[in-house]
Amino acid sequence: MESKEVSVLVKNLEKNKTNDKVVLEILKTLEKDVVATEKLLRETKVGVEVNKFKKSSNQEIASMVKKIIGSWKDSINRQKRSKLSSTSTPSPSTNASMHDKQSHKTGTSESKKDDKSTHINKSTVAKGKPRNSRIDGVNTTLYNHKLRDMVVKALYDALVKDSTESSSLILKLATEVELEMKKFSDPDVNEKQYRDKYRVVYSNLISKNNPELKFRIVGGDVSPARLVTCDPKELAPESLKKELEEIAKKNLYNAQGATVQRSVTDRFTCGKCKEKKVSYYQLQTRSADEPLTTFCTCEACGNRWKFS
Known about the structure:
By secondary structure, the protein is α+β, with helices and mostly antiparallel strands. It folds into 3 domains: 3-83, no CATH class; 146-238, no CATH class; 264-307, N-terminal domain of TfIIb (Single Sheet). Helices cover 58% and strands 6% of the residues. It has 15 helices and 4 strands. The protein has helices at 3-15, 20-33, 38-44, 46-51, 59-88, 92-106, 110-113, 122-126, 133-136, 146-160, 167-184, 191-206, 213-218, 224-229, 238-257, and strands spanning 263-265, 278-283, 293-298, 304-307. A 4-stranded antiparallel β-sheet has the order 1-2-3-4, with no helix packed on it. Strand 3 and strand 4 (304-307) form a beta hairpin. The protein is elongated and about 100 Å long. The N and C termini lie far apart (89 Å).
């Protein structure tokens, strides 16, 4: 569908916004005939107009709006990823030209190995300065969605810090992690749950207790899906796991040591089975000037009673 036709539908949608029947018909047409592109959405403002009906009291309209907006966003994202992959992968002729230049400059094979380090700010790494999307010159605005783009940028900055990997690889991983988070909870449906998951993932990536995690992700040992879905304790390094186990054992021991000590005596008689093998303990259950309460358990039949 051409942009002029879409613009007409947008105007009709605005004029008939109180007529649910007309709105539904227009939305169905947009869903069926519109192939979303950045240019089309920017020129016609159709996304803005459709999004106004997201909170419609008519559930059918609200549901269809969410479906349309989600479909358009996915379409735009696919186009951007396709464009990104095509621009980040040099053509054979470009590769040949780059290798020729390197050979001409150095005359050694070592210079060709440096070729795969493109998109890395080598001076920054050499000086020990932390890398980030701004320094690397990486565009993390992929979705035209304020929250999702913010998350991609934060994930990129967390993963690229102290790394010598190419920025294209880091951006790919940051994007994949965010997509797994979106699968877990769509920010357009449950923003709070999405934000909560982001906080957990980001905290794990920058945790000083687990500095190896981001290198394990970049190295492929931990997949984006596992990072998002598994218990954070599972991602802890072995040294930290052992430390946590020791703490748990110590806490269990202390808890067991704090239990009330029982004594067994023949001074009491069980009122149920008349046995004299009775265990007991005493606690101050009332005010300090009151006598202790004695709790008894018959070791033979399990009968329990207390007295003061």
